[in-house]
Each structure stands twice: as C-alpha cells, then as structure tokens.
Design brief:
The chain is of the alpha/beta class and about 375 residues long. The chain has two domains: about 5-35 and about 265-370, Aspartate Aminotransferase, domain 1; about 40-265, 3-Layer(aba) Sandwich (Aspartate Aminotransferase, domain 2). Helix content is about 40%, strand content about 15%. The strands form three sheets. It has a seven-stranded mixed beta sheet, with helices on both faces. Strand 3 (about 105-110), helix 6 (about 115-120) and strand 4 form a beta-alpha-beta unit. It binds pyridoxal-5'-phosphate.
Length: about 375
C-alpha cells in the first residue's frame, strides 16, 4: 500500500494520487456524499443516457420541472426565480460577476470555502475575512456590523459553515438580515449544507428582495461529479444575474435528470443520509477524544464535516494529511485549504461515507498522530 518514492514524486498532487487509487481510498477530504441515496436517481441518469438525451442541448431554463422543484425545496417566496448552474460554484461566479465592482467589499469568514473569496477578488473586490476560529466558531451580526464600511456591498453567509460545521440561529440570521437592510447590502446565502443542519432559517423569509440563495446537489444528493447547482433570488436581482450567466446552453443534462429525481424522492432518502452522517460523526468523536492533544471545536456538526484541532499534538496538518493518505489510504484535508491563518491548527474531515470507511479512519488516525507527534 505504501507508495514508492518514485510514485510519490509523480503524484506530488495528493488528489492525483487519490484519484488513481480511488477504489481503495476512504475519501473524507471534500465533503462529498458517498452514502446510498435512491436508485431512482441513478435510473433517471441512465434513462437520459439510454435515450441519448445528451445529443441535444437542454432547454435554457433547464429540464421541465427542475426549477419548480428547486424553488419548492428551499421554500422560496412565490416570485423567486431560479437559474440552473453547473454546480454552486458557477452560481457564485455568476453572482460575483453580476454584483461586485472594483473596490467593493464583501464580509466573509476565515476559515471559509476560499474559492468564493478568489471569485470576489477576480472582480477587483475584497473579501473582508473576519476570524471565526475561536468560540463560537461562527460570525455574529455584531462583529459583521463592526466590519461594515461605505464600500461594503454584500454579506456572504455560508450556513451551515464549511469547514467548522456551525449553523446560525433564527436570531442570528435575523440580525444579519437587519444589517443587510440597514446598510443596503446583498445577502448571499450559501445553503450548500442546509440539509444537514439541525435547523435552518432561510434569509429569503426575512429579506426576500436582497437575498440570493446558492444551491448545490453535490453534498445532499451525492452528485459532486455531476456538477449541478442553482442560483435563486427575486426577479430584480435575477434579471441582472442571468445577464452574466456563463453557460446560456444550460447545465449537464444527465445531472439535471438526476437532480430532478433527487428532489422528487428526497424525503425518502435524505433523512437516512443525515442519520448515518450523525452516527459517523459520533464514531469520529470517540476516536478523537482518545488522542491526546486533539479536540473538536464544534460538536455536533450541522454539516457533513467538522475540523479536528490537532494543535496540542505539535503535528503539522500537511504531514498528517500525507501520512493518512499515503500510508493508510484515508484522505483527510489539511486545514490550510480553508484558512491560511488558522489552518495549521487543524485538519478537516467529512463523514458522509459508509461506516467501514469511518472504521478505517478510526484505526489510522491515532496511529498517524502518534507516529508524527513531537
Ligand atoms: C460553501 C460551499 N459552497 C459551494 C461549494 C461548491 O459546490 P458545488 O460542488 O455545487 O459547485 C462548496 C463545495 O465544497 C462549498 O463548501
């Protein structure tokens, strides 16, 4: 199992290595969902393959029924519109392009899902990264308010939050909405992980006219490789957003067929996914508690991931990631991916994977930490 020095040199990119060995890799590095969902999703995809629906461009609005199902899934206000995108990441790209100008600021967190911050910078705008690696491991409306300047254009609320696993209470969401209203801000509600939350408060229920919802099928429906998401919002904002649609020929048709089936059957499988994810995080907690110098800043997590703080072990997270990947075939993520400033303190693990993978993690993690401990 241990790769030769030659193989390691060739696969300096751990993702390349992990993909090459994917049949044996316990993949806990990207919050993907590898738990069983529903055979009807795969059937819908296969049917689109069998009938060669992929020969045609999909309708620009997406396959019939998809936008309606998406709007229903988030409980959108009646006048809300929906743009089907190639993943949430494309929805974010479109909205940053459409609404941000040079010199403007967006209030964000650190840690965070950093590719969004990169997109903000591409517009010449600045992500104002408020540190949240410390109690309560999330942003508060008060701290966000202190960061508002005349240049502030938007507030990015990833809820629940990648990577920490914290969710926002109804009072907190209301506080962020009041702030957006008081300072004429857009509220970007990234709800990629909402289905894993204990409770979720949609900002569009409070300030529908200034909220944009960013949706993903990657984590709930386990369709990360399919690349499907959506941008939803009120007519005024969406008219502007669609002007910046990077893909007027619509998103992957197979993904759309799978996504529609996923939404139509969601009640049958999503609760099972969530309860397995909760069992899995409990198993991980037991392991982490047995390793001196490690702790979980946030437990239980409201997403399908959390971070393990390893700062008390003296172990470097990159070394731990490599040791776990190359010597145990368990792929966890160096904290630096989600925070340059705080990432040296932690690794991120996601747990929407079959229990056998969690058992392999449970064997590997203590051994890897002991090997590297200073
Ligand atoms: C907060 C957040 N938004 C967006 C995405 C990207 O989602 P998608 O796979 O739908 O592009 C991720 C992926 O990890 C994420 O964590």
């Amino acid at each position: 199992m241990v790769p030769s020095p030659e193989e390691r040199r060739r696969d300096a990119d751990p993702f390349l290595y992990a993909h090459r060995h994917r049949d044996d890799i316990v993949w806990m590095s990207q919050n993907t969902n590898q738990l069983p969902t529903d055979p009807r999703i795969e059937e819908a995809i296969m049917e689109a393959v069998r009938t060669k629906e992929y020969n045609l461009y999909p309708h620009a609005r997406g396959v019939e029924g998809l936008t309606e199902a998406l709007l229903a899934d988030i409980g959108a206000p009646d006048d809300y519109r929906c743009l089907v995108t190639n993943g949430a990441i494309e929805a974010l790209y479109i909205l940053t392009r459409a609404f941000l100008s040079k010199g403007e600021e967006v209030i964000c967190t650190n840690p965070s899902f950093m590719p969004i911050h990169h997109q903000i910078r591409l517009c010449g705008a600045r992500p104002v990264e408020l540190p949240v690696y410390g109690e309560p491991y999330k942003l508060s409306p008060e701290r966000a308010a202190e960061a508002v300047t005349p240049k502030t254009k938007a507030l990015l609320l990833i809820d629940p939050l990648n990577p920490l696993g914290t969710e926002y209470t109804p009072e907190e969401v209301r506080g962020f909405c009041d702030l957006a209203e008081d300072h004429d801000l857009l509220l970007v509600h990234d709800i990629t992980y909402k289905d894993f939350a204990f409770s979720h408060t949609p900002a569009h229920d409070i300030i529908p006219e200034r909220t944009l919802d960013v949706y993903s099928f990657s984590k709930n429906a386990g369709m990360a490789g399919m690349r499907l998401g959506a941008l939803m919002g009120p007519p005024g904002l969406m008219e502007r957003a669609v002007e910046y649609n990077t893909n007027v020929l619509s998103a992957n048709i197979l993904a759309q067929r799978g996504g529609l089936a996923a939404l139509r059957t969601k009640e049958d499988w999503m609760p099972r996914v969530v309860s397995q994810a909760r069992r899995n995080q409990e198993m991980i907690r037991e392991v982490v508690e047995g390793v001196e110098g490690c702790f979980l800043p946030v437990y239980p997590s409201s997403t399908n991931m959390f971070v393990i703080d390893i700062s008390g072990t003296g172990v470097d997270p990159t070394m731990l990631q490599d040791e776990m990947l190359y010597n145990h075939h368990v792929f966890i993520r160096d904290g630096r991916y989600v925070s340059r400033e705080f990432g040296e303190n932690f690794v991120r693990v996601s747990f929407t994977i079959p229990e056998e993978g969690i058992r392999r993690f449970a064997r590997a993690f203590p051994e890897a930490v002991e090997k590297l401990r200073k």
